[in-house]
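[step 3/7] fold_predict: job queued, chain A
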Amino acid sequence: MHGLVNDAAAVDDRGEIGNERLQYLTFLLGGQEYGVDILRVQEIKGWDGVTRVPNTPPHVKGVINLRGSIVPVIDLRIRLGIEEVTYGSTTVIVIVRIDTPKGRSTTGLVVDAVADVFTTARSELQETPDFGEGADVDYIEGVAIRGEAMLIALALDRLLSAGELEALARMG
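[step 4/7] structure written:
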């Protein structure tokens, strides 16, 4: 696994890093809890609309002005194939840093609501199940059991194609 690494690694008696602590900012999309590496989160901003950019994919909602920087905004529901809903009072934009072919880019992710900060050991993050040929799940870093529910950890750098990442870098 790669991408979701916290700075503090706990080494066990055998000198292994399996107990490294990972922290995720968790949020809801369609009733399911997802998470991103908290170290990649820059800020959380209430939904206030975007400036639409013509000829962009449906999941690219547009751009926002974030203290003088133009930041592209992606609707994660649309990107992940979850039914669209009308944005409500809990809808927020999570501003994250994504590595692109041209360097690091700041991008906004529209989510239904922010939930929590979740900490787990790397050894507790299970690999993505094999869904067979044709399933597009490369953007899933892993799955963690959280009580009776599951948390799907997203790999930000694999959430979009290389071409989309490059286009976002040009927008921002």
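[step 5/7] annotate
Strands lie at 21-29, 32-37, 41-46, 60-66, 69-75, 92-100, 103-111, 113-121, 140-146, 149-154.
Confidence is low (pLDDT under 50) at residues 1-16.
exit 0
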